[in-house]
Design a protein that fits this description.
44% helix, 480 residues, 5-stranded parallel β-sheet, 6-stranded mixed β-sheet
Length: 480
């Protein structure tokens, strides 16, 4: 049975159920499996024609013991997690005609039109499954830079075991993303708008970390998280890398490259673990916007907190990529003492400069590109005018990054670009990109349009007093 430990090394190992329910390890570290399953080419070949949900079952079964969740129960949880997706294939693909060997993997056909739906519905259903079995209730907190909050809010609608608090920084997400949360009337879903955040959702992540560190508060509310600090999110996201590979390559064993719009590194952490498990990946193209925190880490070996820039690709406006620490744990051969030292140095000084050997270890297999808003908008316009295919700003970052580094690859190399959100969530950016006043049909989705007709339910506080007002409000609501 796979056990789970903190990547900082403190405390005993725990089982899968404990790791998922806790969200974050008690020492402030991130839960990681004590070992990663290895997948052979023969196994990959046997998975070649599986549907997405059947493939998910095969991959997740490697991490979840039958005594924790039976095969029948796991199948049911997976199927229930994807029955609200709009596309019958769950994750379809589109080959760009204007850019040779660049293929789009559309990860945005879930209920809130974001790739976050892929893992969020599953993790919430896992929590609900475990909590019902224990006859317990839980409060979960998420900080969102745009898509995590709506996905968590939707997934928890009506869950009697869960109270959800979705925190978002005013001005850093689109109106469409905001209304996806605030128009939910379910009594267990609470949207919290925080004004005057100097560093966007990074500020809210720090608030959540402080509340997790407050033992009495954490116990009183039975607090957990479904941000990408929760191992279940990362585990589930490994599946779309396997699926993308199997649907794209001609021959098992062929190397496939992935361009991934990146902020908190959760998605890329999942991809890197899939590679560690045996997925034949050539390079990961780490696609940053002007908040080039990951480019700085992978190119210069420096992890540093910088002021967040509000970009067109707002969901990746991140300065501190928390899941980098989870990836780094495996990249340096699972050395928790070093991880603990570096994480504490980061918390104290907002900066870590890695030694040359460590930097060389963790940067292998990655290329980076930082894409300006201008290039993002131009990429959206060019692809739409050339072939009538509309990219959202995050997919545009990935496509532009792939184009930027394509000289590093042989001409026949395939690059799978991950499209992480539907363009309808970014109407202002699309209008500016295409220089139009009215959105094209490709930028309209009925769920977004419907949300414009509903009232909003919002708690609001200021950044300056959120450390007092948010936990107090949570206590009042949970005690009703």
């Amino acid at each position: 049975m796979i056990q789970y430990v903190s990547n900082k090394g403190n405390g005993a190992s725990v089982d899968f159920e404990t790791a998922i329910l806790a969200g974050r390890a008690p020492d402030g570290g991130l839960y990681v499996p004590t070992s990663l399953p290895r997948i052979s080419k023969t196994q990959l070949q046997s998975w070649k024609n599986l549907s997405y949900t059947d493939l998910a079952f095969e991959v997740l079964s490697l991490f979840i013991d039958e005594t924790t969740i039976s095969s029948i129960e796991l199948h049911k949880i997976i199927e229930n997690s994807f029955d609200t997706f709009y596309h019958p294939e769950k994750i379809p693909f589109h080959s760009l005609t204007s850019r040779k060997n660049i293929i789009i993997q559309e990860l945005f056909h879930g209920p809130t039109l974001s790739f976050k739906d892929i893992a969020m519905g599953f993790v919430v259903n896992l929590l609900d499954f475990f909590l019902k079995r224990r006859k317990e209730k839980m409060s979960i907190m998420v900080a969102t830079s745009g898509d995590t909050g709506p996905a968590a809010a939707f997934a928890t609608i009506g869950k009697e075991t869960i109270n959800t608090w979705a925190l978002y920084p005013q001005g850093y997400i689109t109106e469409e993303q905001e209304r996806q949360m605030t128009t939910i009337t379910a009594p267990n879903v609470h949207s919290v708008r925080v004004t005057n955040c100097p560093n966007g959702s990074d500020d809210l992540d720090e608030l959540i970390s402080s509340l997790f560190a407050n033992t009495s508060f954490k116990q009183e509310l039975n607090l957990s998280s479904v941000n990408s600090i929760n191992w279940g999110r990362i585990m589930m996201q490994t599946v779309h890398y396997f699926y993308g590979y199997l649907k794209t390559v001609d021959t098992i064993g062929e190397l496939l490259n992935f361009a991934v719009p990146s902020g908190a590194f959760g998605n890329l952490c999942a991809g890197s673990l899939a590679r560690e498990m045996g997925l034949p990946v050539g390079k990961f193209i780490l696609s940053n916007n002007q908040n080039n925190c990951l480019q700085r880490i992978f190119n210069e070996g420096i992890y540093v907190k910088e002021k967040v820039i509000n970009c067109a690709s707002s969901a990746i406006d991140i300065s501190l990529p928390i899941n980098f620490w989870r990836y780094l744990y495996f990249a340096i051969d699972q050395n928790p003492e070093k991880i603990k030292l570096w994480m504490e140095e980061s918390e104290k000084n907002n900066r870590v400069e890695f030694d040359k050997n460590t930097h060389k270890q963790f940067s292998k297999g990655f290329l980076t590109a930082s894409i300006s808003d201008k290039l993002t908008l131009n990429t959206i316009q060019e692809v739409f005018e050339t072939e009538g295919y509309l990219l959202d700003p995050h997919a545009a970052v990935a496509v532009a990054a792939a184009n930027t580094v394509k000289a590093e690859f042989p001409n026949d190399s395939k690059i799978l670009c991950l499209a992480t959100a539907h363009p309808s969530k970014f109407s202002d950016v699309i209008k500016e990109s295409l220089n139009v006043n009215a959105l094209p049909a490709e930028a309209i989705h009925h769920s977004i349009e419907n949300a414009k007709e509903y009232c909003q339910k919002i708690y609001e506080c200021n950044y300056e007093n959120m450390y007092q007002t948010i936990p107090k409000t949570m206590q009042v609501i949970s005690n009703k």
